[in-house]
């Protein structure tokens, strides 16, 4: 199932500092969005708000049928929206146990779990490490395990926070294949990255957080970093 999420008057404040205020925001089915901005502007915070992990100072994120009220508690195995952190949390166990974690909650996906997990790990080039303890993996390999764990759930929206930061080119290309597969299935992606690469090239929309607000641009009207740094009045903002 694909979903659309929207937000109105979304803001985040830390004491006297307003991190951002976004009048409107929406992510629709099959959206692919490249989220940019300088360090500290709130990209990660925004993704955590969209995933239900952090509560904003004002406003709220809404989805059909009050999906958001349930968030992503592990005991329910919610898979509508998944947040993939730059330094993902992995459990103290095997690579297999980490990837199978989500699908064990879904009866329709519980059959042939081993085959599903091995297929996901094959896509990230780690199938031979399925029974190894997660501690033997490098940082880049752990990021690939986290992507396999997210991909196997077929989320409606996948929020990827600097997913390629610790990856080599081959690993990035493997993630691209999985991300493209999700898009082909109707999922949506939001990707943050400090540099353009094969993952960001999948995106058809671009968002910037600048001067505490969100600037949107479709792919055909890409705003370059040079243009972004011009006086704010010359930019189109929501």
UniProtKB/TrEMBL annotation:
Keywords: ATP-binding, Nucleotide-binding, Transport. Residues 5-236 form the ABC transporter domain. Belongs to the ABC transporter superfamily. SMART domains: AAA. GO terms for molecular function: ATP binding; ATP hydrolysis activity. The lineage of its organism: Bacteria, Pseudomonadati, Pseudomonadota, Gammaproteobacteria, Vibrionales. This is Energy-coupling factor ABC transporter ATP-binding protein. Signal peptide: none annotated. The keyword Cell membrane does not apply. InterPro entries: AAA+_ATPase (IPR003593), ABC_transporter-like_ATP-bd (IPR003439), ABC_transporter-like_CS (IPR017871), Metal_Ion_Import_ABC (IPR050153), P-loop_NTPase (IPR027417). The keyword Repeat does not apply.
